[in-house]
């Protein structure tokens, strides 16, 4: 039966990855935005705010998507396909007819953002429910596809369509909805059915060690890690076991296990929205995730500006001479961030499973590692002086290569940490709150990222403006153009790391308290 169940999950897993790939196309905005804005004659004062509507659709409207996903992931994929297809059609018409309507573009971007998270959240829920015993590894794939999508579609579009946005919008408006339709057709939730139960010989539970061993094997049979056994009503199970042991009932464990696992054992033990909002985990996760999300997205959005300020230490005539090479370095940063974010997301799941299964530890250690990497990346930018790199270079070409190498290394750190964080948190949310209201919790926790991105971006803008001379269009003071912003960000990374460690300690203490109360040793 377990083998049949696993084979039925494979089409759902493949469909989840296809959905995530189609949903991640929203990150292509930076590719077509300049040409679209120019063709439609959008004023610069309005153009700078258009990207907000993409975040509005994917963050603030994510709560709506979360509610639909928790009721029907397939319906959410269908809605996402319609929204994404409509968004690209509207953009195609606007571009072709050169309509100077920023409100219409904003509406299309909001639709695109909402459609993306409708599919993405459905893909995450499917993998979390269907592969409860290997959540980290299973979720890593759609999360990675979501990150890789922008770079993959950008490469396809620039290769085959060049600057023809009309054809590009038509292509994206067909292929992305098609990928989400695959989710609507083939993505199914396959929870552990009632007839898949552990086969246990009648034994007398004489000591805590036997109980612990039996619990671990039972949980493993049902597709749940023994380290997260409290997620499936361990307290009830233990009370029943200890009571029956005192009565001398040799069939105690078999009866208790048989009576506590049904069709949707995780749904039975999932937290309600109100219960979750009051928990310390929700508050802690909200703080940590949104600090790191804001830091990562701010760097992603601003790396082009940072590259420009580093090269601005050269003479203005030299900057004009190597302008094409500067653009190349900027594009390299975007590629490095995308690629390392992909690897970060891909490795985060297996690494978190290793923490849980081999070291009997917690997935939150992945997040602590992300905090450390982002902290190091911030310090690297603060102490890396472009003028010193210029002095150490023999000629212009060596300076370009040296600066590109150091900046690419920093971009790799930010990209990997950002990817690892986003590759780990979906599983942590499922482990902590269950899968019944999973998508709603994920939407609520990630919603604050919109505020932190704005905060760090505005800090950088003020930092650069205060160091730019009156008649200059670019800040020419090197690392002084952004050092105070990254000082605050490095402190934020430390705060996120401290909160993460406190969450780890709190969970460990709670687990030990439960262990002492019910007489078993927990592996938290």
Structure description:
With 524 residues, this protein is mainly α. The chain is built from 23 helices and no strands. The chain has helices at residues 2-23, 29-39, 44-47, 50-60, 62-71, 73-97, 102-130, 135-160, 165-186, 208-221, 234-246, 252-260, 265-268, 273-278, 280-311, 316-321, 323-357, 364-383, 386-392, 396-433, 438-446, 449-466, 483-518. The longest helix has 38 residues, at 396-433. Residues 194-265 and 520-524 have low confidence and may be disordered.
Short description:
The chain has 524 residues and is mainly alpha-helical. The chain has 23 helices and no strands. The chain has helices at residues 2-23, 29-39, 44-47, 50-60, 62-71, 73-97, 102-130, 135-160, 165-186, 208-221, 234-246, 252-260, 265-268, 273-278, 280-311, 316-321, 323-357, 364-383, 386-392, 396-433, 438-446, 449-466, 483-518.
Short key terms for the protein model shown above:
524 residues, mainly alpha, Growth Hormone, Chain: A, 78% helix, transmembrane, MFS, MFS_trans_sf, transmembrane helix
Strand and helix map with partners:
Layout lengths: L1 H22 L5 H11 L4 H4 L2 H11 L1 H10 L1 H25 L4 H29 L4 H26 L4 H22 L21 H14 L12 H13 L5 H9 L4 H4 L4 H6 L1 H32 L4 H6 L1 H35 L6 H20 L2 H7 L3 H38 L4 H9 L2 H18 L16 H36 L6
Helix pairs in contact: 1-7, 1-8, 1-9, 4-7, 5-6, 5-7, 5-21, 6-7, 6-9, 7-8, 7-21, 8-17, 8-20, 11-12, 15-17, 15-18, 15-20, 15-21, 15-22, 15-23, 17-20, 18-20, 18-23, 19-20, 22-23
